């Protein structure tokens, strides 16, 4: 009887070791899969952010170029004052609108009143 108890205990301890190894193996496999998925998500997020940053840089460069082109357009101070007084807009809005319409007062007034 004592021999049977020792044998049963020995078998039980071996079974527990096997179960623990299997359990550890599964956890390790799960950890590898999880890490891979997380790395993949981080890479895709980084790609998306780089695309967004590139688009923003391009938009900013286009805006600067447009502003430089508009600053070359000659406008009359009288026209700016007229627009500011009659339409009650800021000087920046009046100047920008006149520059966008190449100094054409009537086109600027039509655009601002519509």
UniProtKB/TrEMBL annotation:
Start and end residues of each Nascent polypeptide-associated complex subunit alpha-like UBA domain: 73-112
GO biological process, any: protein stabilization
InterPro entries: Huntingtin-int_K (IPR052617), HYPK_UBA (IPR038922), NAC-like_UBA (IPR044034)
Protein name as annotated: Huntingtin-interacting protein K
UniProt region (Disordered), positions on chain: 1-32
Organism lineage: Eukaryota, Metazoa, Ecdysozoa, Arthropoda, Crustacea
A Pfam family annotated for this UniProt entry: UBA_HYPK
Entries under CDD domains matching the protein: UBA_HYPK
